[in-house]
Write a structure and sequence with these properties.
The protein is an alpha+beta fold. It has 2 domains: 157 residues, Rossmann fold (3-Layer(aba) Sandwich), CATH 3.40.50; 106 residues, Nucleic acid-binding proteins (OB fold (Dihydrolipoamide Acetyltransferase, E2P)). It contains 8 helices and 20 strands. Strand 9 and strand 10 form a beta hairpin. The radius of gyration is 24 Å and the shape is globular. The model has no long low-confidence stretch (mean pLDDT 93).
Length: 336
C-alpha cells in the first residue's frame, strides 16, 4: 500500500533522514519510535506531502507521489491526526467531523463508534482532551482515507487517559481497515499499538519488526536500551553453553559466534531472594511502582542489574541477595 525507497532528507548540511526504506501492508499499523530529532516526524511529513525528500521515492498504491512526480497533500487521500487536535472552535463536533462532507452517515457512524454521539452538538472548548482527540480521529476516518498518519496523537494527554485512548484509536483504525503510521516517542505506546515497530536513531531505521521481536531480539544495543530497561552481563559463549555471572545457561544451536559476549537481561528476566548470608549481589536502591517494586542490585561478579518483583517484596538497601535468571526464552547476545 505504502512503500518508501531509500529516503533521504537534508536541511543544508544537517541530515534528518538517511537512506530509509520500509513498506506498509493493507490494514497494518506501524509505529515509528525514537528520541527527539531522530527523523520520525520528518518521515511522516514526507509521506503526507508536507515536505519533499532530498532523494528517494514515496509510493502510494504503486504510484510515485514524490520528487518530479510530486502529488500535493490534498490529492493523496491520506488522513492526518496531530497532537494539537486542529479542531475549528466555532464549529460543533458534528460540523468538525463532517467538514466538507455531503453525507451525515459517516459522521454519525464514527461518533457512535468512538462513544461521542452525546457530544454531537458540543463545541471543542467544552470537550476534554481525550474527547478532542476522538473528534480529530473521527474527522479523519469519516473522510475514508487510504492511509492514516498520526503524529504524537497522545502527547498532550495525561498518563491515565493515554493508556485507554491508545486502545480506542487502535480499535478504530482496525475497524476502518485502514493502514496507519503512528509516530511516538513513548516506548510503551509503540510496543502496545503497533503491528510492527520501527526504531529510529539519528535519521536511520535501526530495526523494523513485530514488537516482541524488537523487545526480545533487538538489532542493536541502542534498540535494546531505548525500548526498555536493559543491563548487559559480560559472559562467555562456548558451543551452546553460556557462562554468565549468574550461572550457566543453555543456548540453542546457532546462538552466535563463540567467545566474549554481552547478554541482555531486563528486570523481568531476573528473580531475587534474600541471601541470609553471602549472596551474589547487594541491593543499592529500591523503587515502589504500585503493583510492583524495582530494585537495583550490584552483582559481586558483574554490573548493576534491575529486578522487578511483586510489590509485597521488601528488600533493604545494602542487603545481600541472590539473583538468578528466570527468563523462559533465549536471551539476546551482543559481541564484545
Amino acid at each position: 500500500m505504502l512503500e518508501i525507497r531509500n529516503l533521504n532528507v537534508t536541511y543544508g548540511h544537517e541530515v534528518a533522514v538517511r537512506d530509509l526504506s520500509l513498506s506498509l501492508a493493507e490494514g497494518e499499523i506501524l509505529t515509528l519510535v525514537g528520541p527527539t530529532g531522530c527523523g520520525k516526524t520528518t518521515t511522516l511529513r514526507v509521506v503526507a506531502g508536507l515536505e519533499q525528500p532530498t532523494a528517494g521515492e514515496v509510493l502510494l498504491n504503486g504510484r510515485v507521489v514524490s520528487g518530479s512526480c510530486f502529488v500535493p497533500p490534498e490529492a493523496r487521500n491520506t488522513g492526518l491526526v496531530f497532537q494539537d487536535f486542529a479542531l475549528f472552535p466555532h464549529l460543533t463536533v458534528a460540523q468538525n467531523v463532517g467538514f466538507r462532507l455531503h453525507k451525515s452517515a459517516p459522521v454519525d457512524n464514527w461518533l457512535r463508534w468512538l462513544g461521542l454521539e452525546d457530544q454531537h452538538d458540543a463545541y471543542p472548548p467544552e470537550l476534554s482532551g481525550g474527547q478532542k482527540q476522538g473528534v480529530a480521529l473521527a474527522r479523519c476516518l469519516a473522510h475514508a482515507p487510504e492511509l492514516v498518519l498520526l503524529d504524537e496523537p497522545l502527547s498532550n494527554l495525561d498518563a491515565a487517559l493515554k493508556d485507554s485512548l491508545r486502545w480506542e484509536i487502535r480499535s478504530a483504525l482496525k475497524e476502518a481497515g485502514v493502514p496507519a503510521i503512528w509516530v511516538t516517542h513513548d516506548q510503551a505506546e509503540a510496543l502496545s499499538v503497533g503491528d510492527r515497530v520501527g526504531v529510529m536513531q539519528a535519521g536511520e531505521l535501526e530495526q523494523i519488526a513485530p514488537p516482541e521481536e524488537c523487545f526480545r531480539n533487538p538489532a542493536s544495543r541502542f534498540v535494546a536500551q531505548f525500548l526498555g530497561e536493559a543491563a548487559f552481563l559480560p559472559s562467555q559463549l562456548s558451543d551452546t553453553t553460556l557462562s554468565t555471572p549468574l550461572g550457566e545457561l543453555q543456548q540453542p544451536e546457532g546462538a552466535g559466534p563463540q567467545g566474549a559476549v554481552d547478554v541482555l537481561v531486563r528486570p523481568d528476566d531476573l528473580a531475587v531472594t534474600p541471601a541470609h548470608g553471602d549472596g551474589n549481589g547487594e541491593v543499592v536502591w529500591g523503587r515502589y511502582e504500585g503493583g510492583s517494586r524495582l530494585f537495583g542490585v550490584r552483582l559481586v561478579d558483574g554490573p548493576e542489574v534491575r529486578v522487578r518483583v511483586n510489590h509485597e517484596t521488601h528488600l533493604a538497601r545494602g542487603e545481600g541477595v541472590n539473583v538468578r535468571i528466570c527468563a523462559g526464552h533465549s536471551l539476546a547476545l551482543f559481541p564484545r
